[in-house]
Design goal:
Elements: E1 12-19, H1 23-35, E2 41-45, H2 85-106, E3 117-119, E4 122-127, H3 129-142, E5 152-154, H4 157-163, H5 165-168, E6 177-182, E7 186-188, H6 190-203, E8 207-210, E9 212-220, E10 223-230, E11 236-246, H7 252-259, E12 268-279, H8 282-285, E13 291-293, E14 307-313, E15 316-326, H9 339-342, H10 349-358, H11 360-371, H12 374-384, E16 393-397, E17 401-408, E18 412-416, E19 419-423, E20 429-434, H13 442-453, H14 455-468, H15 480-493
Parallel strand pairs: 1-2, 1-11, 2-8, 4-13, 11-20
Antiparallel strand pairs: 3-7, 4-6, 5-6, 9-10, 10-11, 12-15, 12-16, 12-17, 13-14, 14-15, 17-18, 19-20
Family: Belongs to the MQO family.
Pathway: Carbohydrate metabolism; tricarboxylic acid cycle; oxaloacetate from (S)-malate (quinone route): step 1/1
Protein name: Probable malate:quinone oxidoreductase
Length: about 500
């Protein structure tokens, strides 16, 4: 019998390739389908399901970051004043995400809002004179802003006990404390939301490839050639795409480096891991209904701000405290310990060394956190829950976060706590690096990706975007009438009223 050579597989051709199955890719894919329903979309995710890494509910705090309670968005200036600008910007972004969710629910494209978003007060709580003075100043700076007009503030321990009993009970009445609260906050299960958006994409015709990892990217004509490996069989194949989005969380940096685009040069990553304490006592869980955020320790990254959170995951209510930061060299929870050393390049080593030199406080903080015993973790819990019973709390691992390191003309390199969109000059590839506020701002960030990458088409898309996001192009904080209208509408659809 004559030996035959198998014919080569014809490469798949796509309009849009999404790398990573998290909230960012799911949001961008959904928006693309809404704007260009005839475009072919392929999604490639290394794990067996969408939303299992950073988007997973136990891998993030699910806050719906809106700057209602997160104090790192309103730092005190050297003169003690508080500038609300960044908080307003974060809240504006969150309003866009809310409207996107409401559109998807109202059109029946995803399930019940209760399956991924629930109303939950957001509260800031601080201890001591200096922190209390700051929180009062912050309250005064925010209360006149339309987006924050419902904020409340008190230093009355009895009032705090009404808002969050576990925080107040057992506390020394002679210690000065302060709290600010916005009743209209939320808790979001981004894992559930991601899976629902991804499922909708599949139903709409997108090619969903789970258990498939993109191992390489290279230019191919006016687009890109992806090398895709089937994790189960080891088989590799090629996929061509006119546009590529790298939404692979901690895995995005290596792929952007592999692409060779000059815009990715100079970027590095600094991984931070974390743990939470999760309460398993139903009676205790039932007595707390809020997200309570405190002040970060000196040298701590913003994602390590201590918080006591009510969570709604898979229809069940839980209670978490943390996070306790740590350090591991893997960029993904399911990644490799070689991720960090393999990310070092000639173009980013100087920024990374500069960041190491300028962030010794962070290094000391992380070492201290890594060495912290369980009893020390319980002590930290006791600062926020004085009557906490340690036996009710189990220690769980949270997701990996890779903070962005980028070139800086003055310092050589800076550590950036936030998100960074990297886009090629020709708009054929874009990727996202960074962490918080992350998932909460996926919708506005993906709209910005569309603006950058499809400038010739974007103007034609705007009427449709305004149908999906009624405030598109308008700052709600400067338009109280539209803010009231949009808030009432999204609250009704998302069952948050």
């Amino acid at each position: 019998m004559e030996n035959t050579v198998p014919a080569p597989t014809t490469p798949q051709n796509l309009d849009v390739a999404l790398i990573g199955g998290g909230i960012m890719s799911a949001t961008l894919g959904t928006l693309v389908h809404e704007l260009e329903p005839e475009w072919s979309i392929g999604l490639f995710e290394n794990l067996d399901q969408a939303g299992l890494e950073s988007s997973g509910p136990w891998n993030n705090a699910g806050t719906g970051h809106s700057a209602l309670c997160e104090l790192n968005y309103t730092p005190a200036s050297p003169d003690g004043s508080v500038d609300p600008t960044k908080a307003i910007g974060i809240n504006e972004q969150w309003q866009v995400s809310r409207q996107f969710y409401a559109h998807m629910v109202e059109k029946g494209l995803i399930g019940s809002p209760k399956s991924f978003i629930n109303a939950l007060p957001h509260m800031s709580f601080v201890i001591g004179d200096g922190h209390a003075d700051y929180l009062r100043t912050r309250y005064e700076a925010l209360r006149s802003q339309p987006l924050f007009e419902s904020i409340e503030h008190t230093e009355d321990l009895a009032r705090i006990a009404e808002w969050a009993p576990l925080v107040a009970e057992g506390r020394n009445p002679n210690t000065r404390v302060a709290a600010s609260r916005v009743a209209g906050g939320t808790d979001v299960d981004f894992g559930s939301l991601t899976r629902q958006l991804t499922s909708h994409l599949g139903t709409a015709g997108a090619d969903l490839n789970f258990g498939h990892r993109v191992t390489d990217l290279e230019r191919s004509g006016s687009g890109w050639k992806l090398t895709v490996k089937n994790r189960a069989t080891g088989e590799k194949r090629e996929v061509n795409a006119r546009f590529v989005f790298v939404g692979a969380g901690g895995g995005a940096l290596s792929l952007l480096q592999a692409s060779g685009i000059p815009e990715a040069k100079g970027f590095g990553g600094f991984p931070v891991s974390g743990q939470f304490l999760r309460n398993t006592n139903e009676a205790t869980i039932a007595r707390h209904h809020a997200k309570v955020y405190g002040q970060a320790s000196v040298g701590a990254p913003p994602m390590s701000v201590p918080h006591l959170d009510t969570r709604f995951v898979d229809g069940k209510r839980s209670l978490m405290f943390g996070p306790y930061a740590g350090f591991s060299t893997n960029f993904l929870k399911t990644g490799s310990l070689l991720d960090l050393p393999l990310s070092i390049r000639a173009h980013n080593i100087l920024p990374m060394l500069a960041v190491g030199k300028d962030n010794l406080d962070l290094t000391k903080y992380l070492v201290k956190e890594v060495l912290k015993s369980r009893s020390k973790k319980d002590e930290a819990l006791g600062e926020y829950v004085p009557n906490a019973e340690a036996g009710e709390w189990e220690l769980i691992s949270a997701g990996q976060r890779v903070q962005v390191i980028k070139k800086d003309p003055k310092k050589g390199g800076v550590l950036q706590f936030g998100t960074e969109v990297i886009t090629s000059a020709d708009g054929t590839i874009s990727g996202l690096l960074g962490a918080s506020p992350g998932a909460s701002t996926a919708a506005p960030i993906m709209v910005e990706v569309l603006r950058r990458c499809f400038p010739q088409r974007f103007a034609g898309w705007e009427p449709r975007l305004t149908e999906i996001i009624p405030s598109h192009g308008t700052a709600l904080n400067s338009n109280p009438a539209l803010l009231a209208e949009v808030t009432a509408s999204t609250n009704r659809v998302l069952e948050l009223a």
